User: What shape does this take?
Amino acid sequence: MPKRYFKGRIDLDRLSTEDRSRVEQALATLQEMDAKGLIECMVGHSREWKNLRLERKFTITPQRQRILDLMHEREWVTVRDISEATGMGDNSIGPNLTNMLRADIIERSTVEGSGRTKGRKTPYRYRLKAPRTKDSDPVRS
Assistant: This one.
C-alpha cells in the first residue's frame, strides 16, 4: 500500500464541540501510533512548530537502510550510484540524503572535475561519517 501524507493546520476555535472532540481523539490516536513507531507524525500548537521540527527523531527507514548498506560497501557514492544500486528514483534519494546529513550520519563533498555547466546542479558525493573516539587524532600525519 502506498504511503499517505497529511500536512495541515486545524483551527480548533472554528469547530463545533463535537467536531473538536473527534479531532482531539484522532490526534491522540496518531500520537500513540507514533510513540509505538508505527507511523511518523508531529502534533502540537502552531507556536511550537519550529521546536517540534528541530526535536524530531531520526528513523532508519528501509530506503535509508539500503543507502547506508551501499555506503558501507563503498567509500563515496553519488545519487546516480545509489539509484543504480538500489533502484530508487532520484526524487526519493535526495530527501533521504538530506535527512541523513541533518542527523550527522553522513557527509557530503563536491565531485571534483565534474565539468559543471551553467544552470546545472552541483554534483555531490556522500559517505558515512567516521565515528569519533577518544583515541582518534583529528590531525593526520
